[in-house]
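Reviewers of the previous submission asked for a worked example of the structure-prediction workflow described in the proposal, so we include one complete record here. The input consisted solely of the amino acid sequence. No template or homolog information was supplied to the procedure at any stage.
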Amino acid sequence: MKRREFITLIGGAAATWPLTTRAQAPMLVVGLLSPFSRSDTEPWHQAFRQGLHKLGWVEGENIRIEYRYAEGRAERLPELVADLLSHKPAVIVSAVTPDTQAAARATKTIPIVMASAGDPVATGLVQNLARPGGNITGLSQMVIDIAAKRLELLKEVVPGLSRVAVLWNPRDTSSTLTWQEIQLPARRLDIELHSLEVKNIEEFDSAFATAIAAKVGAVYALPGPIFVDNEKRIAEFAAINLLPSIFHLPEFVRLGGLMAYGPDRVDLFRRAATYVDKILKGANPGNLPIEQPTKFELAINLKTAKSLGLTVPPSLLVRADEVIE
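From that input alone, the workflow returned the following structure tokens.
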């Protein structure tokens, strides 16, 4: 072989070595844990992937995302977390409080980024928002008085409202805290709250029967995985029984519910990608301040309002981000 050909061959091989090394390098694993179903969370997870992509992280190229869904059954979360840990993730991304708590119980070393948990301080997940400490950081959908705001919205649309059935889950720490939080605002609005405890899907029918027997004037479902995965069922119950209803996700209104008001979950998941990016680049999660929502959504279903014989005040319609006619 001629000297020039030999040098060309060696030079070409050397040029391919880094590429081969990169191709063979293992991708970082991101565990995506959710207490919801895949269909319920796909818009949020799509926003999360888009956020990562803008920061240079592409699924299937330099990261691998392992998805685990509890389908509204909180009792499945421990086994799902254990399965995720077997894949040695560089970071675990959780959605709300129950799955964040399950991940926190399973590991104190792997970083956990929560996308839209409830009050992380009150639930014992972190020390404080400014400097969480430990291995947990991310975003919280906690906003003071937001639960009371939903009661106020109901009262605004139904001025004579005096009794509201509240769906909540006593096994969900965030749900329990919210139930306690709305007691005082309810008294201030002269509204009597009827507790409808739902710990599993089998208890929905009895909860609905209790609401009918109590002759409530509206239904308020507190945020929680079991209610997100059954929001269509809740919306249909309210519609059939001619009850105004409110939830925290706009999907509820698209399914026939009257109103929804809460933080923009898509925006929160998109912002969660920035935390993952920082952690994958070496940041300590305990030093990353927990952020709160900056965007909120008010959705109103005018078709449902009409079927209930309600007139939505023009001042409320002007404030709405989504109106279904």
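Residues 146-263+297-324 form a domain with the Rossmann fold fold (CATH 3.40.50.2300). We consider this example representative of the routine output the project will generate in years two and three.
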